[in-house]
Design goal:
This protein has 8 helices and 5 strands. By secondary structure, the chain is α+β, with helices and mostly antiparallel strands.
């Protein structure tokens, strides 16, 4: 059999999907930092994490990513996408761009993506769970209820019982996400 007769087929670059996921990661990363200043539950979750906590969520093999962590003063910051020179304590890898599209077009929640083996995590399990809870709270603020119910496992009760908290928090998080 002549192998030269069957050339290797390379996958496409999927540039538009990468751009979309990069934009979503940028927005979510900045929104997490904004929510840490606005929402008391997010503040409490971050208080429970180590002072040197730094999370890197990225798409394999070379896709976009985001880094969120605590700075030297203990404040939560969005730290860009490049992990060079940063000590990552929680590394969450989305296995491919297709899995990232399912998650960031909100067709699949983080829990379902984990169950379908689309995520790989290196780090402490309690830190991972805390970050997933933070991500769910931020998605509740950022998205309308119809989409949020697809993106999170359970729609939070506080958002139904206290609409003022939800809408005021949403406005403040959006302002901080796009201005700071």
């Amino acid at each position: 059999m002549n192998i030269a007769k069957y050339p290797e087929i390379k996958s496409g670059k999927k540039t538009l999907k990468k751009i979309y996921v990069a934009i979503m990661l940028w927005i979510v990363g900045r929104a997490i930092a904004a929510a840490a200043k606005v929402d008391r539950e997010v503040k409490e979750e971050f208080k429970g994490l180590d002072d040197k906590f730094m999370m890197h969520l990225h798409v394999l093999p070379s896709g976009p990513g985001m880094i969120v962590g605590k700075d030297k003063n203990g404040k939560v910051k969005y730290m860009g996408w490049n992990p060079a020179g940063k000590k990552i304590t929680l590394d969450m890898k989305i296995k491919n761009i297709e899995a990232a599209m399912l998650m960031f077009t909100f067709q699949e929640s983080t829990c379902v993506a984990s169950a379908h083996n689309r995520l790989a995590v290196s780090g402490n399990v309690p830190d991972t769970m805390a970050f997933i809870r933070i991500l769910n709270i931020v998605e509740t603020y950022l998205l309308p209820k119809v989409i949020t119910s697809l993106a999170v496992k359970r729609y939070p009760k506080w958002s139904q019982m206290n609409p003022l908290r939800k809408h005021l928090g949403r406005i403040l998080i959006y302002i901080r996400t796009f201005t700071f």
